[in-house]
Amino acid sequence: MKCNCYAGECPHNLCMHKVPIFSSLSQEEMSHISSIINHNNYQKGEILFSEEDSLRSLIIINEGSVKGFKITPEGREQILHVFSVGDFFGERNLFGGQKSAYTAEALEPTKTCSFTKDDFHKILFAYPGIAIKIIETLEERIARMESTMQSMGVRSLDGRIGGLLLDFADKYGEVVPEGILIRLPLSREGIANFLGVARETVSRKLGQLEIDGVIRPVGNKNILLLDGEALKTMTGKDT
Amino acid sequence: MKCNCYAGECPHNLCMHKVPIFSSLSQEEMSHISSIINHNNYQKGEILFSEEDSLRSLIIINEGSVKGFKITPEGREQILHVFSVGDFFGERNLFGGQKSAYTAEALEPTKTCSFTKDDFHKILFAYPGIAIKIIETLEERIARMESTMQSMGVRSLDGRIGGLLLDFADKYGEVVPEGILIRLPLSREGIANFLGVARETVSRKLGQLEIDGVIRPVGNKNILLLDGEALKTMTGKDT
DNA sequence: CGAATCCTTGAGAAGTTTCAACATCCGTGG
DNA sequence: CCACGGATGTTGAAACTTCTCAAGGATTCG
């Protein structure tokens, strides 16, 4: 049995099909679950929840992207996560954790689906296969964070920026004839806040990478990665 | 029904009681599972598995501690995780992931329990409650990594080192009259490799913190944290 | 098209790394 | 139990990188 729902036409089922954690369910099971989904829209810059909020729901991104960050004592944003379509978050509130560890802000117009804690627990017990999917997804997230930590730990800034570009290429890249086109989820300033360096420094390093023929910026929001191998060598991600 | 097994006397049940993920099981269920556990001992410096290994088991630390690291292109170790008693790892190999993302090396004499992939999947389906425990544990790990990333992202090196000390205090600290005694899992060099800075810089910063009366080194393997509040203010972890 | 935002570039100040020498710690074997 | 040797940690000074502040340029969105 095929589903006839497409984006925008059938909002209640939308996220179910985009999200790996429900992929093991039958259409019937999905229908059952979809009845208890809550939907929300956020504009760019809008806050989904703040640090310390006792949010009690799991949020799945249906469209758009969201950054999770904390404010450092220097008053700077430290970005911890960039979530995009299909990612979920807020789950810490459902499993033992009490308060949110970070603030979540929409990076662009974003649509979400969410479950309350109670509903979600019911789902989990009714469909144990979902738990395994969640574990797999969390594993992916951990792997991504490991990769980010590896990038952040590289001594040279060139290496750190290169590592982040590779991470982004992996997640947001699209293969084109000349290389990989990366739709940057973050501005230069965002990248700087992710890596914990000055915005100007990111500019300079990116400029140098362009001179070296490794990348070619396409506007401010895209980067064409011409020589991924150079980056991999530089960052140690070539194994 | 109480268990009569104590450390060293009943190796097959040992890890079961130390590991949160099995805490929901009855004694009987534990007995069943314990029959399929494999045991291993490692000396300090011994490798449990290497990057790229297609390891197929879940490893639980029963005694000792283990670091997970990669080698950077500069030839330096980038430490990604420090696992200690009760932590498990290698799970990436069980859920979709194929290869290990890092090398695991014992930091001290270490005893482990492990399951094969197949056995573990059987357990998971037989006792669904374990899946939820695993999710909770992974959440904790993610929270810890978020904290580490936050530490790494702080601009000032003082803040980065302070953040790491707080993380360690949280996990390895023991409250004593004068403050918190931290049993460092890593050497100065290890700390440097965790944060991606020079060993000498760690020495200098730690020296400065001592002069400021924030910490007092106790030998090379312990640090007495006298003024945790100072660190929290410095790192933004005071919320 | 224009305003607001975001990005780039320059030059001096500040911080970190490097290299080198010395001190300390720890385990080994006598 | 002590002495030795390798490993680990500390300190100093010069070189390098990054940061900060400031100004000008580019991009995006309404």
Structure description:
Chains A, B: This is CRP/FNR family transcriptional regulator. Chains A, B: It comes from Kineothrix alysoides. Two copies of one chain form a homodimer. Chain A has helices at 11-18, 27-34, 117-126, 128-153, 157-172, 188-195, 199-211, 228-235, and strands spanning 38-42, 47-49, 57-63, 65-71, 77-84, 88-89, 103-106, 110-116, 173-176, 179-183, 215-218, 222-225. With 239 residues, the first copy, chain A, is an alpha+beta fold. The first copy, chain A, has two domains: 11-149, Jelly Rolls (Sandwich), CATH 2.60.120; 154-235, Winged helix-like DNA-binding domain superfamily/Winged helix DNA-binding domain (Arc Repressor Mutant, subunit A, Orthogonal Bundle), CATH 1.10.10. In chain A, the strands form three sheets. In chain A, strands 1-8-3-6 form a four-stranded antiparallel beta sheet. In chain A, strands 2-7-4-5 form a four-stranded antiparallel beta sheet. In chain A, strands 9-10-12-11 form a four-stranded antiparallel beta sheet. In chain A, β11 (215-218) and β12 form a beta hairpin. The first copy, chain A, is globular. Chains A and B meet through β5, α4, α6 and α8 of A and β5, α4, α6 and α8 of B. Chain A binds a DNA duplex (30 and 30 nucleotides) through residues 155-157, 187-189, 197-204, 207, 219-221.
Principal-axis shape of chain A equals: globular
CATH class of the largest domain in chain A: Mainly Beta
Q: How is the biggest beta sheet of chain A arranged? A: 4 strands, antiparallel
Chains forming the largest contact: A-B, 56 and 55 residues
User: Termini of chain A, distance in Å?
Assistant: 43 Å
**Topology-level CATH name of the largest domain in chain A:** Jelly Rolls
The CATH fourth-level homologous superfamily of the largest domain in chain A: Jelly Rolls
List the secondary-structure elements of chain A in sequence, H or E: HHEEEEEEEEHHHEEHHEEH
Identify the quaternary structure here.
Answer: homodimer
How many extended strands of chain A? 12
Number of domains of chain A: 2
Poorly predicted spans of chain A: 1-12
Summed up, the helix count of chain A is 8
